[in-house]
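Input:
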Amino acid sequence: MMKKFGFTINAKRAIDLDINDRSIARQVAARVPSWSLCIGCGGCSATCTAGALTDYNFRKLHLLARRGETSALRKQLNNCMLCGKCTLQCPRGVNTRGVIAALMELLPKE
Amino acid sequence: MAAKRVIVIGGGVAGMQAAITLKNNGISPMLIERDINLGGKLTRWDRLFPCGTPANEVIGKQIESLSELGIRTVLCGEVSEITPSDGHVEVTLTDGSNYEAEAVIITTGFDLFNATVKEEYGYKIYPNVITSADLEDMFKEGEVRCADGSEPRSVAILHCVGSRDSQIGHGHCSRVCCITGVKQAIELKQAYPDCEVYNFYMDMRMFGSGYEELYKEAQQRYRINFVRGRISECSGTIDSRVRIKAEDTLAGRPLKMTVDMLVLMIGKQAPASNAKFASELGIGLSEDGFLKGVDNFDGATATSCEGIFVAGTATGPKNIGESMAEAVSAAMKAVEYVNRLS
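Output:
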């Protein structure tokens, strides 16, 4: 029987920009050019009703999409109620609803 | 009555502007420059933010004015001593020559941060780690190349190298590196549209007129990638690329990537001469070694030593317009001062 020493191998945590596929990010940027203007201030997630009730975080979600970390994003998107409050408050004028619509279309269906 | 005399030490943009202002206001100025050329740090820069004005154009105009106004200029003149005494100031150079005036304006500028101090970034260790000043050299030469002569396909630009870093005792923000990072990223994209450019920053400080607009242009028109996270360390790969590690703070996760070239946005630090002038003349020094005026407002260009005025980046990091404006202010304070002398 193999002796167990208590060591384990952890899954890699780094966002690996060498291998991540960022084609969806490029398509969203092409469709909603203002997407590129985000400075990550968090105003969108602060005002978000869904974010107040769940762990849905639009700032983090769309950033992960930008980095090509797209797995599991689709399910999170379902929390959005498309109320558009995020668009109304964005200091950089990002069409956040447009980004959500584009992501809903472009992210692979589960 | 002979015209009153004022000596300006340092022939960068501030020094030249001060000398021109003095002359236009009836004073006889003399400009002393340590280098063989006038223009200071700008002589190494190619184009300027936010409009892409050639640096040569800015200093060229000033040099032309100096010559038209017949302002006396001493090149290769290194100041060894400034001796103020009762309405007179004597300036001695290292070659033993002596000049006398009623007042002195110190416009000795700044030193670029020596990036080898931040060893973790591998400057002078990995061939494709360069500084913002090295990149300006390449822009001036007309092409940006990796160490092996190839065009870079991916470039990371790291902000705040030598600034806002208590590890090296530089607490100050150098102010202009943020906009320089944006400017250089755009210039890279203009020259090499297929090159992916990433700016790693802690904060983007777009304080000047036209800066925010340039930042937005970098984002939307040039699709430059902005990552909020400070690169913690780099290593070289077997093919001489640069592997960087940072935290993508907004994603709350570690980030790594390999790029063809890493550009370090080196900051401004106080020149060694500041400490010497401060101790000899009794002028105040800021925590980061910059010369202090008597206050931050109306007295910003006057010092606690009578007859000695200061302007430009010798008093702290500034952009070119600010340096010139401060030089005009210092010159006018000097004019008021010497005209009060009997």
